[in-house]
Amino acid sequence: MDVVPVRSAADLDRFIGYVYERYRGDPYWVPPLRSDEKARLTPGKNPYFEHAEAAYYLAADSGRVLGRIAATVDKNHDAFHGERQAAFGFFEAHSADAAAALLDAAESWGRLRGAEMLRGPLSFTTND
Fold this sequence. Notes:
This protein has helices at 9-22, 34-40, 75-81, 96-112, and strands at residues 2-5, 52-61, 64-74, 85-93, 117-119. The chain is an alpha+beta fold. It has a single domain (2-119), classed as Gcn5-related N-acetyltransferase (GNAT) (Aminopeptidase, 3-Layer(aba) Sandwich), CATH 3.40.630.30. A five-stranded mixed beta sheet has the order 1-2-3-4-5, with helices on both faces. The radius of gyration is 14 Å and the shape is globular.
């Protein structure tokens, strides 16, 4: 299994699409519009990115997606709360191994940006 960063539009489509595959057939899952999810995850289309940054990762094995995670840092949150936090969200994993690998990627990304803690799941904010 590899954990790889989302770098292209095709990768972002796979990131978004993973939950549609994972929860297909679940009568209790109400899928969001793919176009809304794409806008929500795209800097320049979501005002969250005026004060925050994010990285997205996929866990995959032989091309099959086994999970996803977003890692974020929010300058407004840190300034208000007086802390250095990275957050993770948009988190889904097919196995405990995939979950651990994705959380490690999010933690590493946050530490590179000076975060002293990792908190989640926060799919950008406490409202998600």
